[in-house]
Design goal:
Layout (H helix, E strand, L loop, with lengths): L1 E8 L4 H16 L4 E7 L6 E8 L2 H13 L1 H11 L7 E6 L6
Helix pairs in contact: 1-3, 2-3
């Protein structure tokens, strides 16, 4: 699994960002193998992390192409950025299989 963490601060409001993500989630997850989550920082109510979980590397790579090339996805991401107070910090991690 690949996990993408998008750290940011909300400029609009928590309610507005959550409403946007509820509307955007079906598009974000449409290709399949993608799960979207949102978490708020306990000690700073304006700080959040949006978590995108990809079933595998191929799903992640295909979604990165979609983000770069699909006009509908690019428009959706522009709307998302309008909720942010500055650019997000993006981190991507690959899960390790610790089973024997």
């Amino acid at each position: 699994m690949i996990t993408l963490y998008l750290h940011g601060r909300v400029r609009t409001s928590r309610v507005d960002l959550e409403a946007f993500l509820r509307r955007a989630r079906p598009t974000y997850e449409a290709p399949g193998g993608i799960r979207t989550r949102l978490q708020w920082r306990l000690d700073d109510p304006a700080e959040f992390v949006e978590i995108m979980e990809y079933a595998d590397r191929a799903t992640y790579d295909a979604d990165q192409v979609r983000v770069e090339q699909d006009p509908a996805m690019r428009a959706l991401l522009a709307q998302w950025r309008a909720h942010l107070d500055g650019p997000p910090r993006v981190e991507a991690f690959e899960e390790s299989d610790l089973r024997d």
